[in-house]
Write a structure and sequence with these properties.
This protein is mainly α and 266 residues long. The chain contains 13 helices and 3 strands; from the N terminus they run αβααββαααααααααα. Helix 9 packs antiparallel against helix 10 and helix 10 crosses helix 12.
Length: 266
């Protein structure tokens, strides 16, 4: 009984804190050694004694640890808990970090589910394509699904020609020209008109930028564009654009006196 009378009122032993907070006594000792959580007092017998304030601090440490912070990072993040404002600040910071963690985990889960869907659609094991899909998902590229339709040679070409920034810039240019073609068609602009020829030149320059001038890639791109497995919305929009793009390119090539599509097919 003398042992328990030695514990002043309002204090808890390491064993009691261990049970209350579901951490081991050894962990409490380690936190003390690392100057993260020192006991508020010691009993006459040398036992570590903790207060309710220490429990709040311990909760802060455990929460930050669960969020992936190292003990060194946690030590730098701990602030005094002397006023209600201090405690509120700690709880606010932890809540914000937890929200971010939840958002990150939710995004990771969504990416995994999307990748799972793409893997089943591919019906083959291709880890390079898997990696490319993951990278494009992280880039927030809504057209990540295109990757599974490229053959290995074309994908290698894309990897060598574009990085994340230039790849997204190129895709944005393509989408802008696609929308422009639909708008010109709706406005009744003739494909062989100066405006139509100028559009065709810009569109053709974009294709040359993609292929790096390699016309042997053109038949593959044409075949890929006719793929029935493409996203339905993508196919419909591209079909709308092609109503203007195809005759505009024909008029442009006729004006130049060349047909690179036929040359690339031979």
């Amino acid at each position: 009984m003398e042992k328990y009378r030695a514990i002043p009122q309002g204090y808890m032993t390491a064993g009691e804190v261990s049970k209350k907070m579901n951490v081991s006594v050894r962990t409490l000792q380690h936190y003390d050694k690392e100057s993260l959580l020192s006991p508020s007092a010691f009993s006459d017998g040398g036992r570590r004694l903790y207060t309710d304030k220490d429990i709040i601090k311990l909760h802060q440490i455990i929460s930050l640890k669960h969020l992936g912070f190292s003990l060194a990072d946690i030590k730098n993040r701990l602030i005094p808990l002397d006023t209600p404002a201090d405690v509120a600040q700690v709880l606010t910071e932890q809540a914000n970090m937890l929200r971010k963690k939840i958002a990150d985990l939710s995004e990771s889960l969504s990416e995994l589910e999307v990748l799972q869907t793409e893997v089943l659609k591919m019906q083959s094991v291709d880890f390079k394509k898997y990696a490319d899909i993951i990278v494009n998902l992280e880039m927030k590229n809504d057209f990540y699904w295109l990757i599974k339709h490229f053959d290995s040679e074309t994908l290698e070409h894309i990897r060598s020609r574009f990085d994340k920034e230039s790849g997204l810039a190129f895709l944005e240019k393509f989408l802008q020209l696609q929308n422009r073609a639909i708008r010109l068609q709706d406005e009744g602009v003739l494909a062989q008109s100066p405006e139509g020829l100028q559009f065709a030149k810009v569109y053709w320059d974009m294709i040359l930028e993609f292929t790096n001038g390699d016309t042997t890639m053109l038949p593959k791109l044409m075949q890929m564009g006719e793929n029935d497995e493409f996203n339905q919305e993508w196919r419909q929009k591209q079909a709308q654009a092609n109503v203007f793009i195809e005759p505009a390119l024909d008029a442009y090539f006729s004006h130049l006196g060349v047909n690179p599509f036929q040359e690339g097919a031979t």
